[in-house]
């Protein structure tokens, strides 16, 4: 058989199982949502083998979308980790057969704790289904595996069900992108929503010179500052102009060019600057991109330079515009 055809049949088999599940959702799904939503403690997910791997992913998805959760392996639970379960927790157990030995051994202890037990199983007559306070049917007509043995369709269905539970809970909790970002401060969304100008701006060894500084000294300051720019201030140290390497090249073309002339004669007057250090770095990047500049000087309320924000610093920090 053509391998492309085999792959297509795999997708088809698993897609059909997902579509069947959409029609099979009933009150049990809503009861599971309500059980998890009303849990005062943590949602603990457990399972063995492939179900355990799916369970670990589900726990991670729950945890990052507003439902406090972690994965507990049944074997580890039997050897001391049952102590991780508190009286306000809920256990979500996954087993296609509902008879996984390692899992069924911990079920009597879970009932002893008198906590809610949610079961995901494909066997209504199984030990897991009997012990569960509420359970969802995850049975499939067939596995995509040609031997109908290896968990393929069943694991895809279970993982999708976990996503459906997590997404439904996000809606029920009113979970926003700001909440998501708070759980992912190192991700692109977290950086976009939380990193501010003050977190990234350079504040030391800035190339700041007076307006009447000779151009030749300004060139030295530009080289030492390693920003391709010098910042020009007046006698009161207020920011008034900026000399970039582009300004310097244009100055060289002027007939009145002189290295002894004051730098202010060749600098860009009244360049773009910003004084709110609480501005999000992603918004600052938009300003830089819209103004087509590389450096954004940051000033205090008196107009004195307190830092600079360079586009390279933003890019290196993984900041993206909105």
Automatic annotation (TrEMBL):
Belongs to the SIS family. GutQ/KpsF subfamily. Residues 201-259, 267-322 form the CBS domain. Zn(2+) binds at residue 73. Residues 32-175 form the SIS domain. The keyword S-adenosyl-L-methionine does not apply. GO terms for biological process: carbohydrate derivative metabolic process; carbohydrate metabolic process. The record marks 50, 102, 143, 184 as: Catalytically relevant. Signal peptide: none annotated. This is KpsF/GutQ family sugar-phosphate isomerase. It comes from Sulfurovum lithotrophicum.
């Amino acid at each position: 058989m053509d391998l492309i055809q085999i792959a297509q049949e795999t997708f088809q088999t698993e897609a059909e199982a997902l579509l069947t599940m959409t029609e099979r959702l009933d009150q049990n799904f809503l009861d599971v949502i309500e059980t998890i939503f009303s849990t005062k403690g943590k949602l603990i997910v457990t399972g063995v083998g492939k179900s355990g791997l799916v369970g670990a992913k589900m726990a991670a998805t729950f945890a990052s979308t507003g439902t406090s959760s972690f994965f507990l392996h049944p074997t580890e639970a039997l050897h001391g980790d049952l102590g991780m379960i508190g009286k306000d927790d809920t256990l979500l157990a996954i087993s296609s057969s509902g008879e996984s030995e390692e899992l069924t051994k911990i079920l009597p202890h879970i009932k002893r704790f008198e906590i809610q037990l949610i079961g995901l199983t494909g066997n209504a007559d199984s030990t897991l289904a009997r012990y569960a306070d509420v359970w969802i049917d995850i049975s499939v007509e067939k596995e995509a595996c040609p031997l109908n043995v290896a968990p393929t369709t069943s694991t895809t269905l279970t993982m999708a069900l976990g996503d459906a539970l997590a997404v439904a809970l996000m809606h029920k909790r009113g979970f926003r992108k700001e909440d998501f970002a708070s759980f992912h401060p190192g991700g692109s969304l977290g950086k976009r929503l939380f990193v501010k100008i003050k977190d990234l701006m350079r504040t030391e060894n800035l190339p700041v010179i007076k307006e009447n500084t000779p151009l030749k000294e300004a060139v030295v300051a530009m080289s030492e500052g390693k920003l391709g720019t010098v910042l020009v201030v007046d006698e009161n140290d207020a920011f008034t102009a900026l000399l970039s390497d582009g300004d310097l090249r244009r100055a060289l073309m002027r007939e009145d060019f002189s290295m002894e002339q004051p730098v202010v004669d060749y600098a860009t007057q009244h360049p773009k600057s910003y004084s709110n250090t609480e501005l999000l770095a992603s918004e600052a990047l938009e300003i830089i991109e819209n103004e087509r500049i590389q450096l954004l000087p940051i000033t205090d309320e008196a107009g004195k330079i307190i830092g600079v924000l360079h586009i390279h610093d933003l890019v290196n920090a993984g900041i993206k515009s909105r």
